[in-house]
């Protein structure tokens, strides 16, 4: 499936706010980031996480990714295995296509979502003269890590379209969000929150988002007690800058805890929350891709009881944004320290891994990507990290020995980074390309997804031994 959803969701708003200042341009590399820093920032926070071909390019169609430039003789440090390649039957990819979210291990079975594919089609652009254009709506799938057998357990319809985030499990029920679909007052819909019962395959639409209550959720949810908590991105909420919300899955009542207000009110509380929330000492913590005191993103906290929001850190506070800019994935808490990644910024403008003290707001950059020639260490981390046996593990969308992204490890004590695997090492990126999601650890083996690549070009589920 080669039709892509144009990156239009929040481009105009982010452009007007974020680019009042300019990130420093970086030397061009052999990765797919052959764009200047401002263009890359817009691609990350233009509303579709680099889904447009202009931003990313399809490694199997040329443009964007330079699969193998300058990589002769390069070898990855670990052996990667593709467990499943999406779309073996070709368009419309009824088994799913282009997984953007990570995986969830439920009793030995892996569950995930694909942004496109499935058996139903959804309208994503309509005009009075020519009608509507349609793309496959996306799926929830299960996968056996032992056999590689994949099964679509639910194909979305207009009840949800384009799941952008991972699933969570609570009391035997899976919960998630879709970026579009739901309330068809808007052409694509404003996004949904849903529940899925893996026992009987039934899906329940919990809430359809709207302009007032928030639009376009790009992160997953967290369940605390009887309530779900999550965020919506730009063009929704009272000031159109996103929201933090709670949702009762029983009554299906949604409550906005905080309306971000960086643009209309000139606030510094953040713009466009992305990634998942986490609970630390009774407060919810998350990130915004833009906004804040320096307009290039924040770490924020919200009291789930009162809705009081506090900016813990504003990125780009240092000259040339060496402290990072544009956090894209969520945060993790390791013994009271928060860890995360920024998609751009850092000493070499390839993004960063950072540590943050939630009590004092003190931030430290542990590693700046693109410190190596041609960004062989990775370029552009956009997913959350995981912590396994004292090390942080993550992915970068670009860079690596072949320009198709990496899986990396980082020692948070020493700041030593290792590119464990470089994607696109195989012809036509059969090993996968452009990972956008967090990894999971299953008994010492890392599992993840790539948005592109694989035997049929539409993404993969892969494994990598972390031991």
SSE map:
Blueprint: H1 11-18, H2 37-45, E1 80-85, E2 104-106, E3 109-114, E4 121-127, E5 131-136, E6 139-143, E7 150-155, E8 168-170, E9 173-178, E10 192-197, E11 202-208, E12 222-224, E13 227-232, E14 243-248, E15 253-259, E16 271-280, E17 283-290, E18 298-302, E19 309-314, E20 325-327, E21 332-334, E22 337-344, E23 352-356, E24 363-368, E25 386-388, E26 391-396, E27 406-410, E28 417-422, E29 440-442, E30 445-450, E31 460-465
Antiparallel strand pairs: 1-31, 2-3, 3-6, 4-5, 6-7, 8-9, 9-10, 10-11, 12-13, 13-14, 14-15, 16-17, 17-18, 18-19, 20-22, 21-22, 22-23, 23-24, 25-26, 26-27, 27-28, 29-30, 30-31
Indicate the radius of gyration in whole angstroms. Answer: 20 Å
Number of helices: 2
Basic shape: globular
The helix content is under 10%
- Strand proportion: 35-45%
What is the mean predicted local confidence, pLDDT? 85
Question: What is the number of strand segments?
Answer: 31
Low-confidence stretches: 1-54, 60-74
How can the largest sheet be summarized? 5 strands, antiparallel
Q: How would you classify the helix and strand content by structural class?
A: mainly beta
What distance lies between the first and last C-alpha atoms, to the nearest angstrom?
36 Å
Structure notes:
It is a single chain. By secondary structure, this protein is mainly beta. It has helices at 11-18, 37-45, and strands at 80-85, 104-106, 109-114, 121-127, 131-136, 139-143, 150-155, 168-170, 173-178, 192-197, 202-208, 222-224, 227-232, 243-248, 253-259, 271-280, 283-290, 298-302, 309-314, 325-327, 332-334, 337-344, 352-356, 363-368, 386-388, 391-396, 406-410, 417-422, 440-442, 445-450, 460-465. It is 4% helix and 37% strand. Strands 20, 21, 22, 23 and 24 form a 5-stranded antiparallel sheet that branches. Strands 1-31-30-29 form a 4-stranded antiparallel sheet, with no helix packed on it. It has a 4-stranded antiparallel sheet with strand order 2-3-6-7, with no helix packed on it. The longest helix is centred in the N-terminal third of the chain and has 9 residues, at 37-45. It is globular, with a radius of gyration of 20 Å.
